[in-house]
Amino acid sequence: MSPWGAWVQAARPLAAANVAVPLILGQVLAYAAHGGFSWRLFGAVQLLGALNQLFVVFANDFADREADAINPSPSVVSGGSRVIQEGKLSPEALRKAAWIMLGAMVVVALILALIHQLWWLPVLVVGGAGLMWAYSFAPLRMSYRGHGELLQGLGLGVVLPIIGFYAQAGEFDGLPWLGLLPCFLFGYVGNLLTSLPDYPGDRAANKRTYAVRYGQFDARRHALEMLAVAIGFGWLVVPGLPWWAVAGIIVVPLWPVLVAARLLGSADAGNRGECLRFVMLGAGAANLAMLAWMLAALIRAWVG
């Protein structure tokens, strides 16, 4: 594999939706609340998201290099990119790349703050990076000590939608603050889901992930329950919808949850195909719900 191919592998493009979708959701909510939208700002915000994605995956690969080395069941959704374990990139190269991505992210945020008077943007960006640092690095290193899913819930489900909203609106007025609760749950569950295939490796590495703390079955059950709760309270994200629209944003995303429920008793990490299918269905339900919220917000804005 060429060096470029190794960096593409390290970038884990499939995980980009975890960052891109919440940022877009925040921007759509800003448009629905204020009626203004800038495609240039949209591009800048998504650039911030891409840099954030690269910072996170490079830093996590470096921080988890020892645990990933003893993980017997890496997958497309977990276990790291494997570039260190396969000898394609050195830990030092990934460490430097993570710092470069973080620096670029802060520079873009500062430029946007200066040009558009978005003075809270660098604060939000640095705060989000701090959550990631607490997740993977000392002294907290909560992905190992336990409850790292709280930090991912805050980062993906709260900080990113706020960044998207604030960048487009230039203010926080009109942001559905209570609507960040179901977004937080999606970020929380996302961490829980991706820990499921890594259960054997996480136990071996003494990582106290959700699945290790509660067991595989209960982790899957709790994931479905939290997904259902988040979807059921989607009306908080887009308040003021008629009853039929509320029904729509609930019923449609619940379908993957119901399909995943059929795998509840058999999707252990040892049953690799079903475990990955369970993870994909759960992640799909969350993304489908956010897409439904965006569509509902746009329709409400267009029809008044």
UniProtKB/TrEMBL annotation:
Q: What is its main location?
A: membrane
Regions crossing the membrane: 40-59, 97-115, 121-138, 150-169, 175-193, 244-264, 276-303
Q: Name one GO molecular function term.
A: prenyltransferase activity
Classification via Pfam families: UbiA (PF01040)
Per the record's keyword annotation, is Transferase included, yes or no? yes
* Pathway(s) annotated for this protein in UniProt: Quinol/quinone metabolism; menaquinone biosynthesis
Report the Gene3D superfamilies cross-referenced here: UbiA prenyltransferase
Q: Does the keyword Magnesium apply?
A: no
Q: What are the subcellular locations of this protein?
A: Membrane
* Protein topology in the membrane: Multi-pass membrane protein
* Sorted UniProt keywords: Cell membrane, Membrane, Menaquinone biosynthesis, Transferase, Transmembrane, Transmembrane helix
Q: Which GO terms describe its biological process?
A: menaquinone biosynthetic process; vitamin K biosynthetic process
The terms describing its cellular component in GO are: membrane
What InterPro entries does its record include?
UbiA_prenyltransferase, UbiA_sf, UBIAD1
PANTHER family linked = 1,4-DIHYDROXY-2-NAPHTHOATE OCTAPRENYLTRANSFERASE, UBIA PRENYLTRANSFERASE DOMAIN-CONTAINING PROTEIN 1
For this entry, the protein name equals 1,4-dihydroxy-2-naphthoate octaprenyltransferase
